[in-house]
Amino acid sequence: MGERDLNRRYTLVLDAGTSCAKCFVYDDEGRVVGSSRRAWDFVESGEAYSLAREWEPEALWRAFCELIKETVCGSGIARGDIGSVAVTSQRQAMVFLDGEGYTLYAGPNLDLRAFFEGAEIDDAYTDLVYRTTGHLPSFLFVPAKLKWFARHQPEVYERVSKALALGDWLVYRLTGEIANERTLAGEAGLLDIGSGEWCHSLLSELGVMFDTGRLVDAGSVVGRLSSTAAGETMLHEGKPVVAAGADTQCGLLGIGVHERGEVGIVAGWSAPVQMITEAPMYSMDASSWVGRFPVPDRWVAESSAGDLGNAYSWLVNMLCGDATDGFEAMDAAAGRVSAGSEGVQAIMGSARTQYSSPRMRTGGFVFPVPMTLSELGRGNFARAALESAAYGIRANLDALELVGVRTAVTVALGGGMIRSRTLAPIVADVLGREIRMSQSPDASGLGAWLCAESAGGGFTTLDEAADWAKERTSAVEPNPHVSAEYELFYRQWLELAERMDKVSL
């Protein structure tokens, strides 16, 4: 997939995720030798009320430059030893450029300013949008955001020439080359998801056009580090820069999921459940997503258990404060509680995300009262939250198996939530089947390294790279007796989730 730099020893990976920006240095065996991360710094936008989130573009670029320098310095290696750079990013995070390459807007996937514009699109074109792009609701995607600018900031809209995903914009800043990686373009609502080409007809129908350009596949060298970017990052000019694509699909590679019927859960900020398919698989009620996979002629069918990682981190912070070992403390407490959490139930996500009709839902904890008759503690709530995550994963896996008309061949788990060592055994017990667990919580970073290795000749294909990652996952077997208990608890949780779904605040 490209020429191999014989002097390359290390790969630098930028992973612009939902929770934070991360940077890693990997050696040629896929080991992390240096890493840094920093929280996102959004700016206020008075135009878009409380729904808006955006970055100041130059401050965002400077933050990435500092992150790169910090990571390389902390790794203890010489900057000249970085042989290539790979970039992956959160889905739906977008940047708009004018005809001169100036950044007009940069917003994360949490920017919901186009909620009303998206609703208008869906009222008129729901079926067309879903059958073309594989994604709903429209307020998350580029056409609705362009309509928002056309309505609220027409002077900006008239200057928009290019639309780039965040990862593609970082590649542009590193190389000066403009290209759209396919998985990211698909997750931005810009592709005919079946053909993998620009959805020009839909964009024309919606009345939002811009200058579409070069589409590239994950694992492609888009360009080489420019002299300007080299000076700003302290890396060496001329190093190849690889597009690694959407962070969730990249994470699937990192946990070894790539063949038809395999399912991966990259449980980070959110917990999307994705099945590899050999053709686009649409749900009858448009309640699941269809996305591109980095390997050509493969797609992903996706359902989601919601922002489980974000919700669990909130719980850890609330119960453990600022303790550096909050996850470990919660794990230890949860491990002392038996299946079912002694009657405590949690709704931390959705039994099944309805992409066609998204809305706020009611969550929380239900536990036995009066408290004088129980001795509930942190462990009960920690385990109940992890069980809720596992129940949500099962409900969404069941839904995907209906969409894909087949039982999952394998199920693999990765992402930041596996920092909780209690989660994987609970998921295996709730599913009643073996799962494969990644050794590293940074699945997307590892997937980006695999893309760089494939581009440089370390692997002949991304399939071979994913098989390498699969060999490094470990099996987690269910306990048959506990699985039998969880059958009852899971049914009770589904009933609770249905009742809670009707509660309004």
Description:
The protein is of the alpha+beta class and 505 residues long. The protein is 38% helix and 19% strand. It contains 16 helices and 22 strands. A seven-stranded mixed sheet has the order 16-17-15-14-20-21-22. Strand 14 and strand 15 form a beta hairpin. The longest helix is centred in the last third of the chain and has 27 residues, at 378-404. The termini are far apart. The model is unreliable at 1-8 (pLDDT under 50).
What structural keywords apply?
globular, 19% strand, seven-stranded mixed sheet, six-stranded mixed sheet, 505 residues, 16 helices, 22 strands, disordered N terminus, alpha+beta
- Classify the beta-strand content into a percent band: 15-25%
Total helical segments: 16
Head-to-tail CA distance between termini: 53 Å
Q: The biggest beta sheet, please?
A: 7 strands, mixed
* Mean pLDDT across residues: 92
Radius of gyration, in Å, reads: 22 Å
Tell me how many strands there are. 22
Placed side by side, the strands forming the largest sheet appear as 16-17-15-14-20-21-22
Helical coverage, percent range: 25-40%
The outline comes out as globular
Q: Structural class, please?
A: alpha+beta
Residue stretches low in confidence (pLDDT < 50, at least 5 long) are 1-8
Short description:
This protein has 505 residues and is of the alpha+beta class. The chain is built from 16 helices and 22 strands. 38% of the residues lie in helices and 19% in strands.
